[in-house]
Amino acid sequence: xxxxxxxxxxxxxxxxxxxxxxxxxxxxxxxxxxxxxPVALVVTEAGAGAAAAxxxxxxxxxxxxxxxxxxxxxLSMPVVDALVAAAxxxxxxxxxxxxxxxxxxxxxAFAARTRSGLAVDAIGISRDVEGIVAHHSxxxxxxxxxxxxxxxxxxxxxxxxxxxxxxxxxxxxxxAVPVTASDRPAASIVAFDETIAVSSRPELRGAAKVVAGGxxxxxxxxxxxxxxxxxxxxxxxxxxxxxxDAGYIPHSHQVGQTGVSVAPELYVALxxxxxxxxxxxxxxxxxxxxINKDADAPxxxxxxxxxxxxxFAVVPRLIAALDxxxx
Length: 327
Ligand code: FAD
Known about the structure:
Blueprint: E1 8-13, H1 24-35, E2 37-45, H2 49-58, E3 63-69, H3 77-90, E4 94-98, H4 101-114, E5 118-122, E6 124-128, E7 131-138, E8 143-147, E9 155-158, E10 173-176, E11 209-213, H5 224-233, E12 236-239, H6 241-245, E13 266-270, H7 276-279, E14 287-292, H8 299-302, E15 305-308, H9 311-326
Helix pairs in contact: 3-4, 5-9
The structure holds flavin-adenine dinucleotide (FAD).
Flavin-adenine dinucleotide binds at residues 214-216, 240-243, 254-259, 271-273, 275, 277-278, 281, 291-294, 297, 310-312.
């Protein structure tokens, strides 16, 4: 069993269905390195631990704890069992988990099992004299708040894309941790159909650049202008709920309180008024650009750059300028 540093931060690494590390892994390990020694937990099916551990080491894990599950079709509970075993071995100052659907499911169950405090949807992590502090953007980004636990270690889910820091690759120890299955009730996968994404655009969650369109696009056909600008910038496509409700684009692209939360480097809002429920999902973007014909639209209150104008006149010129720059 490896010796774990007193300032260890345990990071649950999510994996893609094809077995690779999820895109959230780099940010989680980067956040852990800011406040302590990153220790990655990789939960794998039997025999797949070595490759995943190597990949986690390349992203800056000082130690990798590998837990093998007997039945990978059972959802969440084997991961919670593995986290319990890893936390007992590592004695971390905090546990970091992606704020994904699966991550939140695991985080809640693990926090309840270990009687730990749970801090969700953090956009930053710091350490003060009393321990680890999670930072959150709440009420549609109107307030930044900090949370900490008064007992034990915090379990923190981290918003994907919100952490810029990256940990450098380092010498990594790899340790297998034996996991005792709790056999608690759990859902299991009975059938699995892989959906092959045909889009070459980046995935919205975790994208570095997002171009989003709202009701101002006016129709599904005209919404392709959003996609054209996204392609010119190499960005993912987002949308307001009004655009989704009007059928311009599927719900999976909705940004906001009842959609996806994003924290990209660049967020371009086209024909979006900037309702608080939309802002809740994008206000932590590093640079916000808004194009709207209404100078009083609330989106301009949070925009770093704004164009007051008809998007159907502005965006084609923007695309042409980007194309001209490329040649
Ligand atoms: P509008 O508010 O109608 O704004 C359209 C904008 O386009 C206007 O500002 C207009 O000036 C501009 N415009 C029109 N034509 C042009 C043009 N030619 N050129 C330039 N600009 C133009 N919303 C979300 O987005 N995400 C959520 O997750 C979400 N969750 C919600 C949850 C709840 C419980 C509730 C009550 C609401 C939620 N909403 C959410 C809805 C939200 O309140 C707004 O209704 C919605 O965001 C408005 O979308 P919009 O900005 O596209 O449309």
